[in-house]
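[Discussion] Sanity-checking designs against the backbone

I'm trying to build intuition for which residues belong where. Below is a structure token string of 216 positions. I'd appreciate it if someone posts a full sequence so I can compare it with mine line by line.
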């Protein structure tokens, strides 16, 4: 059975870090629409140019662009053993499109990470990324742990934009919890704990959900 995981959570919940670690542990690809979009912006592709202004404002990129990116990625052979989706879906419309893409594949496991709002704001304002490879870093890191690159604050990590992104999440993405809540493979994890404890909770949640998702 393939392990197909969605990580849900607001900006700053730590889902990117946890998704990357879980995917590496399970030897399946982590698919981050945020990373794909930032790569498109840096490359100056038509998708990147269309998305840049909305990303800088903290708004969501249009569903059709995101869905097209995800569809192409899920068609690659490395996703057959499973994948971890980080940052997708973000709207109920995207979730419906993903369900259509999943026809004929094993069930989706959905893990929601929950963190108090003010903690999210503090986390995001202290977050930096590598100017070379785009990896996330904390405020105490002197340089990128992956490639040694210079760390910078993301353009969409000012307090005004962070609070706007959280408001957008509550309005557009929070309804996904209602969309998925009653599926047997939905789980919630407390993300306001040390990273290793959150990682262990995610592993337990996924193991439980996979058991429920197996055909009887």
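Best answer:
Here's mine. Compare freely.
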């Amino acid at each position: 059975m393939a392990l197909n995981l969605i990580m849900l959570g607001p900006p700053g919940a730590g889902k990117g870090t946890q998704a990357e670690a879980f995917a590496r542990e399970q030897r399946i690809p982590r698919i981050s629409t945020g990373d794909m979009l930032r790569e498109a912006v840096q490359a100056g592709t038509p998708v990147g140019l269309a998305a840049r202004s909305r990303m800088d404002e903290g708004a969501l990129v249009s569903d059709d662009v995101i869905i097209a990116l995800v569809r192409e990625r899920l068609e690659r052979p490395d996703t057959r053993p499973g994948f971890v989706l980080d940052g997708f879906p973000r709207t109920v419309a995207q979730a419906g499109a993903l369900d259509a893409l999943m026809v004929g594949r094993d069930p989706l496991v959905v893990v929601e990470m929950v963190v108090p709002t003010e903690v999210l704001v503090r986390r995001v304002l202290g977050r930096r990324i590598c100017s070379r490879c785009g990896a996330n870093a904390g405020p105490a890191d002197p340089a990128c742990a992956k490639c040694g690159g210079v760390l910078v604050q993301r353009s969409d990590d000012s307090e005004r934009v962070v609070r706007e992104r959280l408001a957008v999440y509550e309005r557009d993405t929070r309804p996904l919890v209602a969309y998925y809540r009653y599926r047997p493979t939905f789980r919630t994890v407390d993300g306001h704990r040390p990273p290793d404890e959150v990682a262990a909770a995610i592993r337990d949640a996924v193991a439980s959900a996979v058991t429920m998702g197996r055909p009887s």
